[in-house]
């Protein structure tokens, strides 16, 4: 079992930056492939970014490349999402997710690929 707790959400203005954190506990953090998803009201949960267990490989939703950066600190059992140039359309509940890393050559972008989820943290962006 992996327990995930997100933090760092809040109300920001358009163009601001925000860093989300996800604290993990329960198992060896580096053995888990991690990702961020987001869900806006009335919309499906969508993939944001993912990172391999070592942190050496990252993958982003195309439209977010260059603005969002995913990273992890395995010594602190923590996943991060740095978000720059925030836009009103970035407003959503952001979730971190984990799955055991079986094959480092695979990238998982579907929410159904992940078995462990945090409770989410709200990000609101005012125009």
Task: Describe this protein's structure.
The structure is a single chain. The protein is mostly beta strands. The chain contains no helices and eleven strands. The strands form two sheets. Strands 2, 4, 5, 6, 9, 10 and 11 form a seven-stranded mixed sheet that branches. The protein has a four-stranded antiparallel sheet with strand order 1-3-8-7, with no helix packed on it. A hairpin with a 6-residue loop joins strand 5 and strand 6 (58-60). It is globular, with a radius of gyration of 14 Å. The model has no long low-confidence stretch (mean pLDDT 96).
Mean of residue pLDDT values: 96
SSE ordering: EEEEEEEEEEE
DSSP E strands, number: 11
Question: What would you report as the Rg, rounded to the nearest angstrom?
Answer: 14 Å
End-to-end gap: 40 Å
Poorly predicted residue ranges? none
Helicity range: under 10%
Helix segment tally: 0
Classify the secondary structure makeup into a structural class.
mainly beta
Fraction in beta strands: over 45%
Shape: globular
Mind describing the biggest β-sheet? 7 strands, mixed
Quick synopsis:
The protein has no helices and 11 strands. It is mainly beta. The strands form 2 sheets. Strands 2, 4, 5, 6, 9, 10 and 11 form a 7-stranded mixed β-sheet that branches. Strands 1-3-8-7 form a 4-stranded antiparallel β-sheet, with no helix packed on it.
Topology:
Layout: E1 3-7, E2 10-13, E3 18-25, E4 32-39, E5 46-51, E6 58-60, E7 68-73, E8 78-83, E9 92-100, E10 116-117, E11 121-126
Parallel strand pairs: 2-11
Antiparallel strand pairs: 1-3, 3-8, 4-5, 4-9, 5-6, 7-8, 9-10, 9-11
């Amino acid at each position: 079992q992996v327990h995930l707790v997100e933090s760092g959400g809040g109300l920001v203005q358009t163009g601001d930056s925000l860093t989300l954190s996800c604290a993990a506990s329960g198992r060896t953090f580096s053995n888990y492939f991690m990702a961020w998803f987001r869900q806006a009201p009335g919309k499906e949960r969508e993939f944001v970014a993912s990172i391999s267990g070592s942190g050496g490989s990252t993958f982003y939703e195309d439209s977010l490349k260059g603005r969002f950066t995913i990273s992890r600190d395995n010594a602190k059992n923590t996943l991060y999402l740095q978000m720059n140039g925030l836009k009103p359309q970035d407003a959503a509940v952001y979730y971190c997710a984990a799955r055991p890393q079986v094959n480092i050559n695979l990238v998982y972008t579907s929410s159904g690929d992940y078995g462990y989820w945090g409770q989410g943290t709200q990000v609101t962006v005012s125009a």
